[in-house]
Amino acid sequence: MKKLLSVRQLKYRESLHDHCGVFGIYAPSCDVAKITYFALHSLQHRGQESAGIAVSDGKKLRSIRNLGLVTSVFNENNLNKLKGFIAIGHNRYSTTGGNTQANVQPVILSSNHKVFSLAHNGNIINSSELSQKLKNVKRSSTSDTEVLAKIISVASGEKWSDKIINAAPQLIGAYSIVACSKKRLYAFRDPWGFRPLSIGKLNGYYAISSETCAFDTIGATYIRDVNPGEIVQIDNSGFKVLGQIAPHNLKFCLFEYVYLARPDSMLNNVLVHSVRYKSGEILASEAPVKADLVSAIPDSGTSSALGFASKSGIPFGEALIKNRYIGRTFIQPEQHIREQGVKLKFNPMRQIVKNKRVVIVDDSIVRGTTMKKIVEVLRQCGVKEIHLRICSPPIRWPCFFGVDTPERKQLIAATKTIGEIRKYIAADSLKYLSLDGLIKSSAQEASNLCTACFTGKYPVKVNLKLKKNVLESNC
Ligand code: SF4
């Protein structure tokens, strides 16, 4: 019997997913809860399974955390209960089975009148070893983020700042973190700088965000990034760099440019849209094709498709319309609707594509299942030829640094040649962007980038045999 996909599976099956967006603000004269709400709203693409905000008024730390999108977790009433001058917020994408109430962030630790809250984007790869050190410490969740928070809480030092400085060198992996005590906001980032973390200013106060698009939303100005390994503190005496975990050794995630970040965000001072546009231009030079129309898999392929169209001189047009609200329902559709498969998410424009030679541009191929269905649906619309152009190299290796990838054997490019993938997807041609082309598009030094999911060259030693989520990555 043909296996049917649930709406959730349809949504998550094909793409890679980031593990979370974080935001923090210290602003005594502002409604920090509402500002954080709107910031999280603009970071929703980084995690859609749960959301939380913790606010301190200097004496008490209050929080609202729940499963669901930002708009379903928060409302005017509950936000009004979060009064204070420091806020941190979190959007979470969990690993399979990890989407539980206990794992919703920010994590809050409270003991002996001390309180500390933390929100994390990344993946601690030595969390199993670290959890051995916490044998006698009570745990309330199954996440690596709680391990991380508790390692900080048991580290030596009286002040939270000392504890962070002393705990951070024990952490291996990806972490971009915002945290707060009753009176201070903290931000720190792993020495490799895998995931982004930026500093902004609003009305003279400081904010920290996973992506700069949140600053645009709340009217803040982007100042700079939290440097790899840097620990910063913000309180009533202003902004202070507390220390450096280890020397700079930037290995920024190349896939943030390809898919994870919003096109209107700046990563390492480069607009993500420009990187994707450039990657489309380079791919048009590397893999030209005669066609009538260039189109994108919306939305992540759109910037690249525009670049491809511009360079190739082939007009850009919309072949597929995306239902942007499919993520809002977990209700199982009736069988005859489920059988439509990919049409729940993408509806083809029959009148536009019929009898045309169409170039379809996308950011990446993970398992190939969705792309195969899209090609099938387009063929049913009478498309004459379908040429796939992928604006990244083949993904052949899993990520251990905060992006949810399937096991290696499920990555289509790990088990098939490009020719076999083309055949499986049933496209007329299939070409990928070269790694050099992608790095050139990003305008970054190759040595400053993590490219492991394309090359298998991991910047930190990983055990490929270990199941990735021995301890669930909570973000
Ligand atoms: S392995 Fe890939 S997705 Fe993971 S950090 Fe490196 S480039 Fe990014």
Automatic annotation (TrEMBL):
The keyword Metal-binding applies. Keywords: 4Fe-4S, Glutamine amidotransferase, Glycosyltransferase, Iron, Iron-sulfur, Magnesium, Metal-binding, Purine biosynthesis, Transferase. GO terms for biological process: 'de novo' IMP biosynthetic process; purine nucleobase biosynthetic process. [4Fe-4S] cluster binds at C253, C399, C450, C453. The keyword Glycosyltransferase applies. Pfam families: GATase_6, Pribosyltran. It catalyses: 5-phospho-beta-D-ribosylamine + L-glutamate + diphosphate = 5-phospho-alpha-D-ribose 1-diphosphate + L-glutamine + H2O. Binds 1 [4Fe-4S] cluster per subunit. Binds 1 Mg(2+) ion per subunit. Pathway: Purine metabolism; IMP biosynthesis via de novo pathway; N(1)-(5-phospho-D-ribosyl)glycinamide from 5-phospho-alpha-D-ribose 1-diphosphate: step 1/2. Its EC number is 2.4.2.14. Its cofactor is [4Fe-4S] cluster; Mg(2+). InterPro entries: GATase_2_dom, Ntn_hydrolases_N, PRTase-like, PRTase_dom, PurF, PurF_N. It is an enzyme of class 2 (transferase). GO terms for molecular function: 4 iron, 4 sulfur cluster binding; amidophosphoribosyltransferase activity; magnesium ion binding. SUPFAM superfamilies: N-terminal nucleophile aminohydrolases (Ntn hydrolases), PRTase-like. Residues 20-237 form the Glutamine amidotransferase type-2 domain. Mg(2+) binds at S300, D362, D363. The active site is at C20 (nucleophile). NCBIfam families: purF. HAMAP family: PurF. In the C-terminal section; belongs to the purine/pyrimidine phosphoribosyltransferase family. Catalyzes the formation of phosphoribosylamine from phosphoribosylpyrophosphate (PRPP) and glutamine. This is Amidophosphoribosyltransferase. It comes from Candidatus Gottesmanbacteria bacterium RIFCSPLOWO2_01_FULL_39_12b.
